[in-house]
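Thread: sanity check for a docking pose with LFPHGCPZ

Original post by kr_44:
Hi all, I'm comparing my docking run against an independent structure prediction. Below are the sequence and the ligand SMILES. Could someone generate the full complex and paste the structure tokens? I mainly care about where the ligand ends up relative to the chain.
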Amino acid sequence: MTPALANLDLILETITDGILVVDELGFVLYTNRSAERIFDQDALLGTKLAIPVSPSDAPQEINLVRRSGLGWAELRSAPIEWEGRKAYVIGVRDITERKLSDDRLLQAATVFESTREGVLMTDANKRILRINRAFTDITSYTEAEAIGQQPSMLRSGRHDAKFYAEMWASIAATGHWQGEIWNRRKNGEVYPELLSISAITDKSGEVTNYVGVFADISRLKATESQLDFLAHHDPLTRLPNRLLLLSRVDHAIEVALRDGKMLALLMIDLDRFKDVNDSFGHLTGDDLLQQVAKQLNFRLRGIDTLCRLGGDEFTVLMENIAHPEDAARVANDIITTLGEPWLLSNGKEVRIGASVGISLFPEHGATPVELLQQADTALYQAKAEGRGRFKYFSEELTHSARARMDLEVRLRRAIDKGELRAFYQPQVNVDNGRIVGAEALIRWQDPDQGLIPPLRFIPVAEETGLITAIGNWILKETCRQGKCWIEAGLPPLTLAVNVSPHQFLHSNLEEIVAETLAETGFPANRLELELTESALMQREHEAIRILNRLHALGVRLAIDDFGTGYSSLAYLKLFPLDVLKIDKSFIDDIPHHRDDMEIAAAIVAMAHTLRLKVLAEGVETKEQLAFLQAQGCDLYQGYLTSPPVPADQFEKLLPAQGLL
Ligand SMILES: Nc1nc2c(ncn2[C@@H]2O[C@H](COP(=O)(O)O[C@H]3[C@@H](O)[C@H](n4cnc5c(=O)[nH]c(N)nc54)O[C@@H]3COP(=O)(O)O)[C@@H](O)[C@H]2O)c(=O)[nH]1
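Reply from moderator J.T.:
Ran it for you. Here is the predicted complex with LFPHGCPZ included:
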């Protein structure tokens, strides 16, 4: 053998590709070791291989069925002459690894493209490198629009910077984050998704990529909230059910405890509903219940919760009520509303009605269940008393609420029927004892009960808003009377009118005053408006604006009952006031109570520093007057001169003072 041939043998044994020589029938005439390894057979020589032997330019791929499992090989063959016979030399390359890897890549690509989850891959700087089809399906951003951008292009604005900082901190620490997140589609729609982000690192631990996989869970969320809705609502009226009511009451109790507020639970039972059901069938009854629910909802405040407990029983949770009567008023309104005729779906008209039981927190119970039970007991009593009425859990409250509501009805009628009267109490100059003006004080001349003092009806009027009508009336009456006195030649008098907190903050006072002055012809500088400390201090900034507008009209402004509220001196300085009235409670015990004397003296001094006139209220004795004189108080008002009297009697006080 020549050295070249000997080397060739060695070469054939060392190369990793297999070399075979087969005859025309496929019997192996020669094999190197690599061929045996590829075919996984120890003695190939002489065996017949099921492989194509015909020569081909292009490589051919074949499957290899081997002891160690399936494999793939690439063959190239060429005809040769072998020991005088026609044969073929075949180059065999094991491509199993490449094929498997190609398959795996193909599978991965198929999964990537066909998964319903959106997938995005970024580089280490969070620039999007790849997205899949589902990404586009969910977000509507195409590959061209997404690649090169940051995933923050999807931000909805619903999460704050802290949320994202924590998310990236978790990825940095653990390499992973999963959670629910709100993102925004290209069309602007915000949707919830379940997102999982993983950091991909290289061998040295450096992050090379981030992969985000997300599922649009808006449908899931909608289903969840639908299930939640069904669990907490009555399917017929779609109102909250008992379960939701109890949880709302529980929460309301927490808030009421925290804020020191009161809440009421009204249990409503429809009277004669059973008759409708029995006479016209359940479908008609259902329709009526839906109408009732709609009408009740329409009547209630936005913050009240109306629930249906089942059958013909409804409940109202009233949060943040100021007085027990507020609940009675709503109950009464409900009773009136439900007492109206109802047009049924079958075209028939029926009358039902309602009874209402009321329990209050904290008075009647400390837990939702207790409150519900007490309201139920009260409802039972209301029904026992003859239906169409409300009852509180306690008898006392029922009486006082009914009395106040009765007063409210009569007061409305009194305003319409002209039963209000203006009385005038002189305001006197401390130095010379001359009457310089009067405070107008309202009275109600009731045909049955006689003269009713304001303290009996002003609080109810405040609660119900009737105070605005009353306030407008006395303003107009005082200006009309003042104008008459000017025309009758009486000396100039300043007439003071009380403005209630409600009137001050909730009515267009400035317009009303301007209109009244124009209508009556009473000079603005002769009108004084008395405002309480509490009204001014409730909303200081708004108070300053209203006062400035009133001041611009030319009217005088006084602060009433000074010392009883919590006036802040800082604000007092900002209010354009003319007069400060010392509350009667500081005058009452003069000269016996040292503290009161010191307070009164301090108020006079402070008012003068602020360049305000000072008027002392409720002066009944000469000693009180002497003390006020000594302190330099400007004006006083009190029984020492006269109680509030009707206009004709007030006129008679003036000549006695030498004023006429
Ligand atoms: N928003 C409105 N409030 C008004 C109006 N009219 C009256 N009121 C308020 O009702 C409260 C009680 O008023 P009234 O019963 O008229 O009592 C006033 C005086 O009669 C009483 N007074 C005056 N001098 C004396 C006295 O020497 N002794 C004594 N025992 N009582 C006296 O004080 C009341 C005057 O109050 P004030 O307004 O603070 O100056 C009262 O709060 C009225 O404000 C109205 O039209 N609108």
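Residues 106 and 112 are 10 Å apart (CA to CA). Hope that helps with the comparison, let us know if your pose agrees.
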